[in-house]
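Run log, item B.
One chain of 212 residues. Sequence copied directly from the ordering sheet:
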Amino acid sequence: MRSMVLLCLLASAPLLCAQRLPEQKPTFQGTLLLPTQLRNPVFGRLTAPLGEVEGSFQLPLVKGLGVGVGASFMFWDLQQRAFPLLSTIGEARRSVYFGKLQYARYTGEKTFYELNAKAGPARWTWDCSTCVDNVEQRGLHWGVNAGYYVHATRNLAFGVTVGYERDDAEFNAGVICEPNFPGYPEVREPYRFFTVGLGFSTRFEPSEEERW
């Protein structure tokens, strides 16, 4: 009899633990990201990353799936001596407004991970000393991300993220108002980035629920 009781308790332990896991709630997430360009050495020579900030509001639907909307803003500094005999002082900025689909799951009472995909219109603005006016580009933005978060309080969690982003606007010598990049063959590439970020996730939940 004791053996049977012990076996029942062991078998039901995972279910009991799962029942104690918190539920997903509406959240606001903010992330500070460091982008790294991919497969475009000329872009890497011309620019230096200043950073990217992103914010999104998320609403859970069912079984960890949810949707969200948000915006991100990316900033790059232009290297003055990127090319011989050409001074390229200035900056490049990108803004994105996106829709988001995410899957989140708690792995413990205070830890969870999130996988998400996002897409929306991107707008690049190049402000370079070689141009009379700013150069603007537009294209489709999409990206995929993964994050792992740990709760510091009942409603506030901090985490790390990694991701991949792509903008289908075309990087070419027109962004610095030149026929070509001095010393380089013709370059026409979409924008691709690998990102690493630090962020927070804050839940909208009445204070009397789910005390830690």
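Observations after the first pass:
- The chain is about 10% helix and 60% strand.
- Residues 22-203 form a domain with the Porin fold (CATH 2.40.160.20).
Flagged for discussion on Thursday.
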